[in-house]
Amino acid sequence: MDTILIVNAGSSSLKFQVYGVAGGALNRLVKGQMDGIGTRPQLRAQGSDQKSAIDRTFAADEVADLPAAMQRAGAWLREAHNVRPAAVGHRVVHGGPAFDRPILVDDSVLTQLEQYTPLAPLHQPNNLAPIRVIRSLFPDTPQVACFDTAFHRGHSAIVDRYAIPERYHAEGVQRYGFHGLSYEFVASRLPEVAPRIAGGRVVVAHLGSGASMCALAAGRSVESSMGFTALDGLPMGTRPGQIDAGVVLYLLGQKGMSGAEIEKLLYYESGLKALSGISNDVRVLENSADPRAGFALDYFAYRVGLEAGRLAAALGGIEGFVFTAGIGENSPAMRARIVRHLAWLGAELDPQANAHGPAISSPGSRVELYVIPTDEELMIARHTLALLATPERWIGAGEGRDGVSRPPNRAIDGHSSPSWSTRSSSTIISS
Q: Does an H or E element contain 20, and which?
């Protein structure tokens, strides 16, 4: 059986899945993640039987960063499973103006993606590092990059333009939106989980260490809370969300801060961490009696409510609201805080249903409320399989939905079809 390895390296977590491919169908063999990197590291994984295969915690200094997380997860996969991947699929946060669909990675593509690192400094280096290592060791193993920005690339110019001179827009300074793989997966689940609203107007809140929201119309993105970078919109674990550009000018001109210092402030020292003075982890804040923790949680919920109003305006009203990602899926208390800010839309929570989901709205609620667990890795696996199974999709250049010519989706080393490697994935991951 051919297998596909999926690697999703984020700002504070490393997720991985291994899928078997038989008859064009995907069968998940292993699902795992290392989260709480640098704070409360925990490696969890389960096999195809959905039983726990490992649940181990580490001291913060044992898994202080992403490379350490990769080493720990790779060591476990090497010891517990002997998988031979035919291809590797990756989440890449920023596709810039050039990439509006999954693409097979070659050296040219990798070089271009590296240029977007300043637009996603928390993620892009982490996303690209595994690709670079695998290419250097196993250049014949196909690797597919799937972009968080791609799902939002069908927006109108009115939605994505900034009111700045044209020359900057021509260089790619525009709103992109992120968490697209998550929103794409949720959109694919709506017809099954919530058929009454799947074809209508739905706001999805991806609430995790990184947080954003998306307005869906008939399953397609029409507006998003994030913009040029993943700093915009909602407050996050360590990012401030929406902030007046004048604040940055003040920090530059009046405080004498350098660009690097401001970048560190906005990406690593703001958000819930700054508001609470305690932690960027909602679990820690919910268990704290410190008033600052309560303030940070209330602030987060308030901002989600404000953004819901903006997205509802973009849609002309909503029929549904969906919670997803780490906080959205696992914190009934935060869901309750947020729904209180949605009451003006006619949203009403069922407290008992809120404990488990997926439907959590009361019978009389005018807006249907749901909790739908996201699965970015499955979305990546689907794209990887589809891309490699259809060679014409990745040979030569193509055009995006906006009619813009895209760089050629070249096969690795000039091959015209996938080279199904027999090398061990455990060797790849542990490198």
A: strand 13-22
Cα–Cα distance for residue pair 57/209, rounded to 1 Å: 19
- Asked if 56 and 43 count as a contact pair (C-beta separation under 8 A), the reply is yes
pLDDT band, residue 205 (cuts 50/70/90): very high
List the structure tokens of 407: 């760089």
Relative to beta strand 42-47, strand 25-35 is antiparallel
Confidence of residue 212 (pLDDT cuts 50, 70, 90): very high
Place of tokens 């959590």: 360
Q: Give the pLDDT confidence of 13-62 residue by residue, as tens digits.
A: 788 998 988 888 899 999 999 888 888 999 999 988 888 889 999 999 99
Structure tokens at 161: 């333009």
Strands 220-224 and 211-217: antiparallel
pLDDT at 426 over 60: no
C-alpha angle 134/139/144, rounded to 5°?
A: 65
Q: How confident is the model at residue 1 (pLDDT cuts 50, 70, 90)?
A: low
- Mean of pLDDT values over 381-406: 58
Active-site option among 35, 100, 148, 232: 148
Which residue from 365, 380, 275 is spatially nearest to 318, judged by alpha carbons? 365
160 labelled catalytic: no
For 259, counting Cβ atoms within 10 Å of its Cβ (0-12 exposed, 13-18 middle, 19+ buried), the class is: exposed
Cα R_g (the chain), whole angstroms? 21
Residue 152: strand, helix, or coil = helix
Record the tokens describing residue 382, joined without a space. 């689907």
Cα end-to-end span (Å), the chain: 24
Q: pLDDT (tens digit, 9 = 90+) per residue, 34-46? A: 888 888 999 999 9
Q: Quick one: 158 exposed, middle or buried, by C-beta within 10 A (0-12, 13-18, 19+)?
A: exposed
Closest Cα to residue 428, out of 171, 207, 34, 130? 130
Q: What is the DSSP string of 83-121?
A: --EEEEEEEES--TTT-SS-EE--HHHHHHHHTTGGGST
**pTM of the predicted model, to two decimals?**
0.84
For residue 180, give both structure tokens. Answer: 């697209």
Helix axes 124-137, 107-114, angle to 10 degrees: 160
Output the CA angle 234-186-150, nearest 5 degrees: 70
Residue 8 near residue 92, CB atoms below 8 Å: no
Buried b (16+ CB within 10 A) or exposed e, 179-188: bbbbbbbbbe
